[in-house]
Specification:
The complex is a heterodimer of chains A (171) and B (86). With 171 residues, chain A is an alpha+beta fold. Chain A contains seven helices and four strands; from the N terminus they run βααββαβαααα. Chain A has two domains: 116 residues, Ribosomal protein S6/Translation elongation factor EF1B (Alpha-Beta Plaits, 2-Layer Sandwich); 33 residues, no CATH class. In chain A, strands 2-3-1-4 form a four-stranded antiparallel beta sheet. Classes of the chains: A alpha+beta (171), B mainly alpha (86). Chains A and B meet through strand 2, strand 4, helix 6 and helix 7 of A and helix 2, helix 3 and helix 4 of B.
Amino acid sequence: METVAKRLYEGMFLVDSAQAAADWEGTLSVINNILQRADAEVVSMRKWQERKLAYDIDHKSRGTYILCYFNASGERIAGIEKDVLLSEKVMRVLILGTEKRPAEMIEADIKGEEVKAAEAEEATPEAAPAPAVEEAGEPEKADDETAAPAAEAVAPAAAESDAEETEKPAE
Amino acid sequence: MAPRQPQKGRRRRPGFAGARDQTQCRFCRGGIKYVDYKDIDTLQKLLTNRGKIYSRKRSGNCAGCQRKAKRAIKRARFMALLPYST
């Protein structure tokens, strides 16, 4: 009998913030159960960010993202996604293969070295977060309205089209 | 016929890199081979304030990086990290 080779996958699980804050261990165990059902070996699992969602999902506006690396066979990934659909606690999941990702990126993700920009911005006082590590990001983050790429690379003519777009009434 | 003289005038602003001066896109310049959907700050710069993806002409990306960025933006939208266009 052939054994299917397992590959390393990255999974991002989105759960409700209120529920995660109330029962963190329970939330992790739900995700662990889903992964175990697919015979996945969890390499790492950690909270990535807690942030406001870009749009409401199930009438919830805040979410906690849980980043997880696991070894699993490709055939079982669909099963994980189906389990998440049926689960009431997990709102979304995104599972990606890691073949194209650079190894150092994966290591940084596993160790949790990434800048938690959103947490630093929102600065929730109850968490009392450590000061955000300032990695070499691009310093020129201007106001969102005059969106930065114009300053970087683009001919002035393009600015006109941007102006046109902003002037359009909401449909 | 007299040979053409090089044009005078048209001084450039110091420190301003025009569209033709930058031969590489922002990702190629930084040596970034993988555009991560979790890198929201970078991806946000490629969106209008309505959430649409800038064209290549506007963002200055090369074709390959524009495709990578597009994929990353769509993944980020699915995970509610970035908005869908309104």
